[in-house]
Amino acid sequence: MADWSKRVLVGSLLGAAIGVLIGLGLGRLLWPAAAPTPTVQPSPVATAVTGPDESADQALVLISALYAVDGDLDRAQGRLAVLSLEDPPQVLADLALRYGSAGSSEVATDLATLAAALGHRPQALVAYVATPTATATNTPSPTPVPPSPTPLPTAMPTLTPTPSPSPTPLPSATRRPAATRLPAPANTSEPTPRPLEWDPQVYSLDTPIKLVPAEVAPGQLYWRLVRLDWRKPGEEGSGNCIIYITTFKQDGQVKWGQQVVIENGGHTVLYTDPKPGHPYGAEFVMGSTLNSYIVFVGGEYPSERVTGLGLGVWLGGLDHTSWLLEFQLARK
Questions:
Q1: What is the pLDDT of residues 71-115, one digit of tens each?
Q2: Tell me: the pLDDT tens digits for 203-229?
Q3: Beta-ladder partners of 198
Q4: Pair type for strands 322-331 and 242-248
């Protein structure tokens, strides 16, 4: 009966979390399913990892994915408590290593991050958990010691008259060299990137819209999505059936002349350019249903990708809709 109760609790946890955050939680576990039309490129699917208790493993993966979204450690600990694990941080760390060795780095990162938040940081997880920068410690300066007083002489010395020295001629005036102005130190701080604005309306679509992370190393520049907006049928701008893409520099200024890529069985390259009275940089007219288009920024830097875009509100539908995407250059 204890094992049956554990399964009921795990099932309840998974059902509730999926019902509330299906788009946010499962978006980090699965890639979008391939569209039924032959022109859609199938997206990669995360490698499955089978453990001794598959239902518990899936619950841990979902709990870590939710923690990566909301950052609420107390809520994550409450979800872990339902599983009745003897050592949750150790179990999370072991599962992270299994996913990492299977090639699912995003899932391994979520598991390792939650394990680290719970105080478990084994050496094997260093590759998946960012190490915080050490804070410099101020060393107190030594307390100056006052000099010893000079003893007074016991007897007054005899004064001997000293002849006055002959006056010394003053040296000729010499021009001092002009002070050299040192260059001002450069401002090495970088602007804080914008937070992601994700339209919650997309969770009502028949096909999930996915954000695929970029493969970048710490300190590397890359293009990150900062806005995704969906214009539903009948809403202003939806009748154009267009994907609008705009790119921004690190300082928030619009980046013109930037390469943008649209994939739909083919590979279409666009470039952002200013248009009078129009705030968007590049436009692409859609003709296919949902799960037909992949959008990302091209060029020298890696880019996050948005998958599952298309017309309609259900797979196969062609209702007139539009998409607004904005990317900003940021440092990992």
A1: 898 988 888 888 888 899 899 889 888 888 888 888 888 888 988
A2: 999 889 999 999 999 999 999 999 999
A3: 228
A4: parallel
Torsional sign, CA 251, 256, 259, 262: positive
Cβ-Cβ contacts under 8 Å for 136 (sequence gap 6 or more): none
The beta-strand segments (E) located in the chain are 197-198, 210-212, 221-231, 242-248, 259-263, 267-271, 282-285, 293-297, 305-309, 322-331
State the Cα–Cα distance between residues 165 and 215, nearest whole angstrom: 83
Residue 259: partners with Cβ closer than 8 Å, 6 or more residues away: 269, 270, 271, 297, 298, 299
Query: Please, what is the angle between helix 54-70 and helix 2-26, to 10°?
Result: 40
Report d(CA 255, CA 16) in Å as an integer: 42
Nearest-angstrom CA–CA distance, 323 and 237: 9
Instruction: Please tell me which residue, 141 or 212, carries the higher pLDDT value.
Output: 212
For residue 139, pLDDT beyond 50: no
User: Which of 13-27, 120-134, 180-194, 314-328 has the highest mean predicted lDDT (pLDDT)?
Assistant: 314-328
Q: Is 204 exposed, middle or buried (0-12, 13-18, 19+ CB in 10 A)?
A: exposed
**Reported confidence tier of residue 255, pLDDT bands at 50, 70, 90:** very high
| Domain ranges across the chain | 2-125, 197-331
Count of C-beta atoms within a 10 Å radius of residue 260: 26
DSSP β-bridge partners for residue 231: 322
27-31 long-range Cβ contacts below 8 angstroms, 24+ apart: 27/208, 27/210, 27/211, 28/65, 28/68, 28/69, 28/106, 28/107, 28/110, 29/61, 29/62, 29/65, 29/107, 31/210, 31/212, 31/307
pLDDT score for 55:
77
Q: What pLDDT is stored for residue 236 in this prediction?
A: 85
The whole-angstrom separation of Cα 157 and Cα 6 is 101
Question: pTM for the full model?
Answer: 0.45
Alpha-carbon distances of 36 from 40, 186, 289, 294, rounded to whole Å: 8, 54, 10, 15
Given a contact cutoff of 8 angstroms between Cβ atoms, the answer to whether 260 and 242 are in contact is no
Q: Which residues pair with 271 in a beta bridge?
A: 259
